[in-house]
Amino acid sequence: MKLSNTLVLFLGTLVLLLSTTSCSINRKVLPVETVVAANNEKMLWDALRIAIYDSDFKVGGGANPAEREITSAWKLDLQPYKSQGNRKRVIASYEPINVRRDDDLESFDVSIRVETDINDSFRSLDIQYAKWKASADDEAGARRILALLIANLGTGDIDVTERGREGDASAELGFEFDRQ
Fold this sequence. Notes:
By secondary structure, this protein is of the alpha+beta class. Helix content is 28%, strand content 28%.
């Protein structure tokens, strides 16, 4: 009888430990939020796409101007050791806000986050065996994209043309800046 009580206690403790360790990890979400000014919403949209693209994130089907949100493709950084490789993607959104300004610029509340997952697989260089585990957001990466956005908007003129300048990082997107 004493053996069965000990066995039940051991199995109960084991089940409790396994249930607590298998719970999903809560992601630490760190969006970078600020208010920016732009001539219009189209200019903000173009500047935001360029800032994400210049940060080496691919923007494609995840860009939805109707919902004012851009979700980039995952950028992979595979490493040969367990839990050192990662993948990142940008989730950026904005909302117009009604703020009285002396100039003719519109104000927008912008939120940018760089979501990060860690590869917890022992076969970490083979993408088909990857086991992605949620990790804290990359706040420094989000601040970098925000700085690029503000720099792009600081010129005051973003001209969307059919061809960009050769050698320009944004030429592949077909954007050209009018920097005076």
